[in-house]
Amino acid sequence: MSAAPLDFTATEIMTVAASRLLKDGTVCFVGIGLPSTAANLARLTHAPEVVLIYESGPIGAKPTVLPLSIGDGDLALTADTVVGTPEIFRYWLQGGRIDVGFLGAAQVDRFANINTTVIGPYDAPKVRLPGAGGAPEIASQAKEVFIVLKHSPKAFVAKLPFVTSAGYLDGGDARVRAGIPGAGPTAVITDLGILTPDPVSKELTLTGIHPGVTVEQVKAATGWDLKISPALKTTEVPDAETLTALRDLHARTAAAHGQVGGEG
Fold first, then answer.
1. What are the backbone dihedrals phi and psi of residue 8, each rounded to the nearest 5 degrees, phi first?
2. Spatial separation of the C-alpha atoms in residues 135 and 145, rounded to whole Å
3. Which of 90, 94, 147, 213 is the most buried (most CB within 10 A)?
4. From the candidates 55, 137, 203, 263, which is the catalytic residue?
5. DSSP code at position 127
6. In this predicted model, what pLDDT tens digit does every residue of 64-106 receive, in sequence order?
7. Rounded to two decimals, what is the model's pTM?
8. Model confidence at 198, in pLDDT bands (50, 70, 90)?
């Protein structure tokens, strides 16, 4: 593949970096938004046999444009099959048949716990977020979880006002002691870099940084004293073919949904 010039956006490199984590043939339970963009980009590029499952019941969805919601008809029209939501959760997810849960978040903490419920006190929130949906079940039952969100002090907080979906709880072996079956989040991908849990403490550690980003930038955008891996790597620059596929996907989506421009 040919190399692309450094003309990509922060959102584009985040999406490409997240998509690269999906391997061909992986069974992936996909969240709407950034996770769906990254998962479908993987399907359109290096992982054509990835099996995308959405909460509403499509299995093997191959949407031509990005879905507006889990109820988007294009998911059902392009799927290998469609089953009921109870079957998705009971047979596929709780049955241990989901390799990767791909989730977004409003906030995460140092142990990769997710908040998508409220900002501020639960009884009198400053912001009421979309809520849990199927994320708590995905976060607990998938064999592993990828989380993708933009990096800022408001998103990466020392203490969550509400834990919607479990990461590693209080760290260490807390998840195991709580009897949560899945391995938990193995990567948090942002527009600044990639964080992965420490093998023992489970605290998120910066292990990858995107080109042009500094460690100081990442630390300043994190609401706790972020640990930096001594083996910190720079993310591979997106290749031209992948960027073209991503931009074409956004252009098709914008045209189909009557939007001006794409996501960048």
1. -95, 160
2. 10
3. 147
4. 55
5. E
6. 999 999 989 999 999 999 999 999 999 999 999 999 999 999 9
7. 0.94
8. very high
Rounded to an integer, what distance in angstroms lies between the CA atom of residue 74 and that of residue 67?
7
Long-range contacts of 199-205, Cβ-Cβ distance < 8 Å, separation of 24 or more: 200/172, 201/171, 201/172, 202/111, 202/112, 202/167, 202/168, 202/171, 202/172, 202/174, 202/175, 203/110, 203/111, 203/171, 203/227, 204/108, 204/110, 204/111, 204/112, 205/229
Active site residue 55: yes
- Listed in sequence order, the DSSP H helices in 8-156 are 10-20, 34-44, 73-78, 85-87, 135-141
- Cα angle 258, 260, 262 (rounded to 5 degrees) comes to 105
Residue 17 CB-half CA count within 13 A: 31
pLDDT (tens digit per residue) in 153-187: 999 999 999 999 999 999 999 999 999 999 999 99
Give 247's DSSP letter: H
CA atoms of 93 and 59, how far apart (whole Å): 12
